[in-house]
Design brief:
Distance between the termini: 27 Å
Number of helices: 6
Number of domains: 2
Number of strands: 2
Shape: flat
Length: 195
């Protein structure tokens, strides 16, 4: 039994239940969740319930056999390379942020800046992957959210950020066993297994 999945599933279902009760008890316009200019207050409870069910289903299975703890040897060369790459990515991000303050909104749409942030974060993780360094799940997740949010801004879709965030989070949770099997995410110093 995987306790973290069970706890996460119970928390998601509890929040979904609370939001459902609030949607049923409160006046129609008091619960707001805007998607494309339309109030869809049932979206968060439904998405949270689905995520909760998935977490409970994955948590009910047998936990992997405990493996004897191995000491992870730190590869100093990979750690140094990762530090250089992170510094360069931060530099690119700060240069782009400075450009955002100099360039008027009329010249470059706001969605372009979000896409730029996503490209920087995903680019960092692509370079990590090809350098056989474990990727960061956090920056990969934020990069995907930034790119999709920027594309939605450019196409004129407003208010879908929350829905996109929940969809990507749910997709990550569904694909999490696949990522763990391939050991793509983790600390940069750890050995990466590519199958």
């Amino acid at each position: 039994m995987k306790k973290s999945n069970l706890i996460g599933g119970i928390v998601c279902l509890a929040i979904a239940g609370l939001l459902t009760v609030l949607n049923l008890r409160l006046p129609a316009d008091s619960m707001m969740f805007m998607v494309g200019g339309q109030n869809m207050p049932w979206t968060p409870p439904v998405v949270l319930a689905i995520i909760g069910i998935i977490l409970l289903a994955t948590g009910a299975g047998k936990e992997d056999e405990p493996v004897a703890e191995e000491l992870v040897e730190v590869d100093e060369e990979k750690a140094a390379l990762n530090k250089k790459m992170e510094t360069m990515a931060w530099g690119c991000f700060l240069v782009m942020l400075g450009g955002l303050f100099f360039v008027p909104v009329e010249v470059i749409a706001k969605g372009v800046w979000s896409i730029g942030v996503g490209v920087i974060m995903l680019g960092l993780n692509v370079v990590r992957y090809f350098s056989k360094i474990k990727m960061s799940g956090f920056t990969t997740f934020l990069g995907i959210v930034s790119i999709i949010g920027g594309v939605l801004e450019l196409t004129g879709v407003v208010g879908a950020d929350g829905a996109v965030f929940l969809i990507i989070l749910g997709a990550y949770l569904i694909l999490k066993p696949w990522f763990e099997k391939r050991q793509l995410f983790g600390k940069a110093e750890e050995k990466m297994v590519i199958e």
